[in-house]
Amino acid sequence: MSAQHTAIPSGSPIWIDYSAGDFATQQAFYSALFGWTFQDQGEDYGHYTMVRAGDAVIGGAMDGELSAQFSGGPVQPAAWTVYLKTEDIARTLGLVAEHGGQVIVEAMPVGELGSMALAMTPGGEAVGFWQPGEFSGHDLPLTPGTSVWFEVMSKDFAADAEFYRAVCGWDVVPMGPDGQQDDAAPDEDGMPAYATDHTGEQATAGLCDAAAWLPEAVPSHWRVYFQTTDMDASVKVVEEKGGRIVDGPMDSPFGVVASVVDPAGATFQLNQPPARG
Asked: Which pLDDT value is given to residue 176?
C-alpha cells in the first residue's frame, strides 16, 4: 500500500463517509478502536459529522436515522462510501451513463465546499464522486486510525475494469500475489485477479475479482483499510465493543490484515503495516 500524494489525482479516492443507525453506539465503537472524534457540522449541513483522527480529517459520518427522517424513507443499511475525485462532475456523470452505470444521486452542491454525486457501477457497487470547491478532500497521513488503502470487491471484474478506465481514467494494472505488478495475473495458483488504478507508487486504489469470494447475498462493494499499530489489541477492542472479525488476521505483502464488521453491520479492513527494519 503505497504512500498517498498530498495532491489527490483525478479518479482517486478523495473522501469516505459512513452512515448507520444507532449512531451513538457506532461513534463509541470507532472512538474506542481508533480514537476518532466526531464534529457535528450543524443544521446548515444536515448535522453531517466530520471525523478526525488527531488533527487529520479522515472522513465524514451521518446518523442514518436522521437521514431517514430528512428523506422520508427507511433507514439504509450501515455502510462506508468511497468518493472519487472528479474535475467535472457533470461530465463524469455523463460518462457513468454512457458506460453501463446508473446515477443514484445527481450532482448537488455542498455550499462552497464542492459538489457530490452517487452512482452504481456495472459491477453493482455504489461509488461517490466529489468535485472539490473550497474543500479539497480527506487527509491521508498514513498514520494509525487513518485510511491507507481503498479497493473494490467486484462480482464483475471485467465490467468494472472497463467502467473505471472509461469514467475515472484508471490504467487497471494487474498485480500478482506478491503485491508486484504482474501482466500475467491472475496466476495459475488460483489467486483472484487484482489490479491497481495506476502503476507502482502512483497507485491509489485497487480492484479485486471477488466473484468467487463473496456470498450470493453480498453485492460488489468498496472497502476501506484503516491502519493499526497493534492488530491484537485492535481485534480485542472490536470484539469488546460489539463488532466481529470475519476474516483474519492474516499476513499479506502489505502487513497483517483483518476484515471487520462493526456493530451496525458495516464492513472495513484493519491493516498493521510491516515492521520496518
From this structure: 65
Contact by Cβ (8 Å): 152, 123: yes
pTM: 0.93
Is the pLDDT assigned to residue 108 strictly greater than 90? yes
Q: Is the dihedral of CA 168, 130, 28, 1 positive or negative?
A: positive
Residue with cell 479485486: 208
Annotated domain spans of the chain: 13-132, 147-272
Q: What is the pLDDT of residue 74?
A: 85
User: The cell 463524469 sits on which residue?
Assistant: 92
Q: Give the residue ranges of DSSP H helices in the chain.
A: 23-34, 64-71, 89-98, 157-168, 231-240
Q: For residue 22, give the nearest of 88, 89, 75, 93 by alpha carbon.
A: 75
Q: Cα 174 vs. chain centroid, distance in angstroms?
A: 20
CB 198 within 8 A of CB 243: no
Class of domain 147-272: alpha beta
Q: Answer whether 13-132 and 147-272 agree in fold.
A: yes
Question: What contacts 107, CB < 8 A, 6 or more positions away?
Answer: 89, 90, 93, 115, 116, 117, 129, 131
Q: What is 13-132's CATH superfamily?
A: 2,3-Dihydroxybiphenyl 1,2-Dioxygenase, domain 1 (3.10.180.10)
| 184 phi/psi in degrees, rounded to 5 | -95, -5
Residue 164, CA distances (Å) to 61, 160, 169, 202 in order: 25, 6, 6, 16
Burial class (CB in 10 A: 0-12, 13-18, 19+), 177: middle
| Model pLDDT for residues 131-189, shown as the tens digit of each residue | 999 999 999 999 999 999 999 999 999 999 999 999 999 999 997 665 565 555 454 44
